[in-house]
Amino acid sequence: MLATRAISLVGKRAISTSICVRGGHGVAKVDDYALPAYFDRRENPLPDVQFVTELSAEQKSLKEKEKGSWATLSNEEKIALYRISFKQSFAEMNEGTKEWKSVIAGMFFFIGMTGLVVLWQRKFVYGPVPPTFESEWKEKEVQRMLDMRINPVEGFSAKWDYENKEWKK
Amino acid sequence: MSLAKPAMRGLLGKRLRFHLPIAFALSLVAAAAFKYGVTEPRKQAYADFYKQYDTTKEFNNMREAGVFESVRPTGK
């Protein structure tokens, strides 16, 4: 009772696909992607299904042998059983790829492209630089800073020799 | 093939026991290095500067250079 009420909250479509044979329609076809899948993930060490779905005759007999005492299994058989259940071992799934080389290459490429764009911009987009950057202006600016004793302890004016009117050696 | 059973527990504890003392030690070293490499010399520089500082002389120099608005240079 509770289940059907819960289903009616989910939606009318869910009723026909999930539970029962209603109105003589039968159970809907279950697509592959709806079934439990196998995947190699470090955080999900035991997937819902084993890797090999159709066992060969050899593998079937091995599975039968597995039902007995495991001490009788040789190392090769143990590995074969592992490979039936799992596609890659943890070492294999965790190993790095060479993808970083493409990443670095891409980075350099786009930085280069950006550099070209910036050069073009400097030439064709920006106007002239303000007059405050001319040498004459800068000389007057530095003289004024020294007169004001900017940072006289450790910084700017500390490097100027006021007696001899030159930069300290 | 029998491999040893890997460590199943206490992994975080082991990592912390290894890394935390190192982290603390390095932080202390960084702090000490900054204190004795930067702040102490800086304090000393300021102390030395102001020991020899003649306020009136500096004021007059700045005044003659014409950077003040409240006092014009002497003359004129």
From TrEMBL, chain A:
GO terms for biological process: mitochondrial electron transport, cytochrome c to oxygen. InterPro entries: Cyt_c_oxidase_su4, Cyt_c_oxidase_su4_fam, Cyt_c_oxidase_su4_sf. It is a single-pass membrane protein. It is found in: Mitochondrion inner membrane. One of its GO terms (cellular component) is respiratory chain complex IV. The chain crosses the membrane at residues 103-121. Pathway: Energy metabolism; oxidative phosphorylation. Keywords: Membrane, Mitochondrion, Mitochondrion inner membrane, Transmembrane, Transmembrane helix. The keyword Transmembrane applies. The keyword Transmembrane applies. Belongs to the cytochrome c oxidase IV family. Component of the cytochrome c oxidase (complex IV, CIV), a multisubunit enzyme composed of 14 subunits. The complex is composed of a catalytic core of 3 subunits MT-CO1, MT-CO2 and MT-CO3, encoded in the mitochondrial DNA, and 11 supernumerary subunits COX4I, COX5A, COX5B, COX6A, COX6B, COX6C, COX7A, COX7B, COX7C, COX8 and NDUFA4, which are encoded in the nuclear genome. Component of the cytochrome c oxidase, the last enzyme in the mitochondrial electron transport chain which drives oxidative phosphorylation. This is Cytochrome c oxidase subunit 4.
UniProtKB/TrEMBL annotation, chain B:
It comes from the Eukaryota. It is a single-pass membrane protein. Keywords: Membrane, Mitochondrion, Mitochondrion inner membrane, Transmembrane, Transmembrane helix. Pathway: Energy metabolism; oxidative phosphorylation. Its main location: mitochondrion. CDD domains: CcO_VIc. Signal peptide: none annotated. It is found in: Mitochondrion inner membrane. Pfam families: COX6C (PF02937). One of its GO terms (cellular component) is respiratory chain complex IV. GO terms for biological process: mitochondrial electron transport, cytochrome c to oxygen. Component of the cytochrome c oxidase, the last enzyme in the mitochondrial electron transport chain which drives oxidative phosphorylation. The respiratory chain contains 3 multisubunit complexes succinate dehydrogenase (complex II, CII), ubiquinol-cytochrome c oxidoreductase (cytochrome b-c1 complex, complex III, CIII) and cytochrome c oxidase (complex IV, CIV), that cooperate to transfer electrons derived from NADH and succinate to molecular oxygen, creating an electrochemical gradient over the inner membrane that drives transmembrane transport and the ATP synthase. Belongs to the cytochrome c oxidase subunit 6c family. PANTHER family: CYTOCHROME C OXIDASE SUBUNIT 6C. Component of the cytochrome c oxidase (complex IV, CIV), a multisubunit enzyme composed of 14 subunits. The complex is composed of a catalytic core of 3 subunits MT-CO1, MT-CO2 and MT-CO3, encoded in the mitochondrial DNA, and 11 supernumerary subunits COX4I, COX5A, COX5B, COX6A, COX6B, COX6C, COX7A, COX7B, COX7C, COX8 and NDUFA4, which are encoded in the nuclear genome. This is Cytochrome c oxidase subunit 6C. The lineage of its organism: Eukaryota, Metazoa, Chordata, Craniata, Vertebrata.
